[in-house]
Design a protein that fits this description.
51% helix; globular
Amino acid sequence: MTSNSSFFGDLLNSIADRGRALLDRSGRSTGATRAATLVERCQELLSGKGEASGVALAAEVLSRYGQMKTGERIAFFESLLEVFGPDKERLEKAIAAYSAKPGEAAIAELHAASEPRRQELFRRFNMAPGATAELVRMREHLMDALPRRKDLTPVDSDFTHLFSSWFNRGFLVLRRIDWSTPANVLEKIIRYEAVHAIRDWNDLRARVDSPDRHCYAFFHPALVDEPLIFVEVALMRETPGAIAPILDQSREPIAPGTATTAVFYSISNCQRGLGGVSFGNFLIKQVVEEISREIPSLTTFVTLSPVPGFRKWLDAERRNADSTVLTAADRELLALTDSAEWTEQDAVRAELSSLMSALSAHYFLQAKTPKGRPIDPVARFHLGNGARLERINPMGDLSEKGIAQAYGTMVNYRYVLADIEKNHEAFAAKGEVVASTAVKKLLRGENAPRALVPTQ
């Protein structure tokens, strides 16, 4: 893949160089060319110049954009919104034509006319060498601006629309990451690890080179040696309830053939600019299929996942004097966590475990966003990909990060291939959180499940 990509990259660079020569021989002076605004260059690019000059223009626009500061970038995004929306005159004609004579041709023209011109602009940007990576970075800059500039959301939607096609699952390649993987890729695995930081090269080797540890990543032909998303897998004989034993470099590895459980303990998105482009489910499915072929003894596929929103939610409930979630006894017990040493006291951890389990069950099954979805982003990811909330593990991660995120709580999501589509549909259509009976039984009070047959 790398050699082919290198060849086409060299070819595009050659075309761009020839295009620049053509542009320099055009009627515009060199000074005028340098003085042209970025928007003017974009208009030129859309005007339909020849392929060579088009590639050169695209490369020049991206180069100019790369030199911009934050304010200039926002001004450029504003231009993309205001100047490069749909062609209104063409759209009005298409609407009139469809109203007068509905038909397939009129529908096709209406569809084409309603497409913002910036989508075609992005496609033409993508002709330049290395443009895909530059466009992903451009969207990162736009995402940084969105919290303050909601009006730019249509531009972001167009990026997402195009990226969903460009990063279609059919274009992605799943590769095993091991100690023989090129060093530049391994360095990116260290840098992009977002769940459990990789401390050094020894830590990395323990995760990718041990017989009972695997790592897989998705790559795209346009982003050579740039992983898009990767998952770290532990081969075990049981479903784990804590992360420390998995990350322990001094542990005794087990023979892969004796493992029955594949544990996805870290899933990291590497390209922030591809946020909203979903290929997580595909990754998990492919890893399950890939690892199942290699190790037939595996029968259970689960995650050991963080709960990044739990502490923020629970702290808000603690501050709310009118909270209906917490009892006076709960508040008294939770006060023990105000001591910095509480995690080091076995008795305190034991006393808090059942309460944290019950509150976690409420957090996952009852607490919702305004849109009726679970509050926790990791829960939305796995449930949306068809997993089942299998088990809650209080005190599963007593690291500083684990305490700051979730008072140490972790959970297992289980992937059963036969149920993935059904679970996904239940979550997507109705917002249903598919959970095991064990998790549902943790709910307290009115929300607790009732027995169908009364018992003594």
